Amino acid sequence: MPPKKTIAEPNVNVPNGDAAKGRDIFDQQCAACHAFEGDDKTASAPTLGGLIGRKAGSTQFPYSKSMKGAGFNWSEKHLFVFLKNPSKYVVGTKMAFAGLENEQERADLIAYLANN
């Protein structure tokens, strides 16, 4: 049986982000579904506290098969590409979010996520 295909670390440069601006983006774009603490088994979306370094699809949240099998740990680079178009980066993800096209907004959001 061939090994599972995993998503390699993207070869991208993540701009420096502003965590304060990232908090505003989080509040506008993410907070309706995501929180930093809580029970992943009953939440509408996975909690994001400690996201950087965590294996994709590894909490108690009922992730899609594709997210559980993505085979990477969340990094700034993975988030930078994922947040542009989640359903393209992890085909089959349950995340119903069109994405953030603007690179600086993604960097700002990542800076905020990295501090929580």
TrEMBL record:
Record key words, sorted: Heme, Iron, Metal-binding
Boundaries of every Cytochrome c domain copy: 17-116
Molecular-function annotations in GO: electron transfer activity; heme binding; metal ion binding
Domain of life: Eukaryota
Presence of the UniProt keyword Metal-binding in the record: yes
InterPro entries the record matches: Cyt_c-like_dom, Cyt_c_1A/1B
GO cellular component: mitochondrial intermembrane space
Name this polypeptide is given: Cytochrome c domain-containing protein
Organism for this UniProt entry: Paramecium octaurelia
